[in-house]
Specification:
- The chain has 178 residues and is of the alpha+beta class.
- It contains three helices and ten strands, in the order ββββαβββααβββ.
- The strands form three sheets. A four-stranded antiparallel β-sheet has the order 1-2-3-4, with helices on one face. Strands 5-6-7-8 form a four-stranded antiparallel β-sheet.
- The relative contact order is 0.10.
Length: 178
């Protein structure tokens, strides 16, 4: 991509961006054998498709509907992205569909330590489920709406408390965007 004038993002090495002399922008996001291309430079997008077709067997699938566990929905208001399907699938996979969150009477300042006997637990699944359940607490139907013809202003706030664990220091990161 660099030989075609694209610059590779330092923050995400799968992201390539090209600015044209007339102010156009073409963006390419590559993940294994999936590519998302977008931008306002129609000529460059057409040329890039031709270049890629000479090197690879490509198939244009149209607008993305689902990519990397993110659903993409289009409306007259703009583009809405969410992870509702991912969360629902994960809950179904773990047998937790229909479970309700409850307030647990526990000392909020309790620090966890190692147990003498470890129950057999799929740690990877537990960690995924734990993070999803934190996310689900009223948020599974929420997402981000990119409104048409608006400038993008993004504010982010972060809170990290290592989930109260003194053992593995797993982080519970809470992000708030407005």
């Amino acid at each position: 991509m660099k030989e075609f004038g694209y610059k590779q993002s330092q923050g995400d090495h799968t992201l390539f961006i090209k600015h044209s002399a007339l102010g156009g922008v073409t963006v390419l996001l590559v993940y294994v054998d999936d590519i998302i291309m977008t931008g306002n430079d129609e000529k460059e997008k057409h040329e890039l498709k031709k270049r890629l077709a000479t090197e690879f067997e490509i198939k244009e699938l149209g607008k993305p509907k689902y990519f990397l566990d993110i659903e993409v929905a289009y409306s007259t208001q703009g583009i809405f992205i969410s992870q509702q399907k991912y969360v629902t699938d994960l809950l179904a996979e773990t047998g937790k569909i229909g479970c309700k969150l409850v307030s647990t009477p526990m000392d909020p300042n309790h620090k966890f330590g190692e147990a003498k006997e470890e129950p057999v637990v799929d740690k990877r699944m537990y960690q995924r489920l734990r993070l999803v359940l934190h996310y689900l607490n009223g948020n599974h139907r929420k997402g981000i709406l990119f409104k048409k013809n608006n400038t993008l202003a993004l504010e982010a706030y972060i809170d990290t408390d290592y989930a109260g664990s003194q053992v593995d220091q797993d982080q519970l990161v809470v992000l708030y965007f407005s």
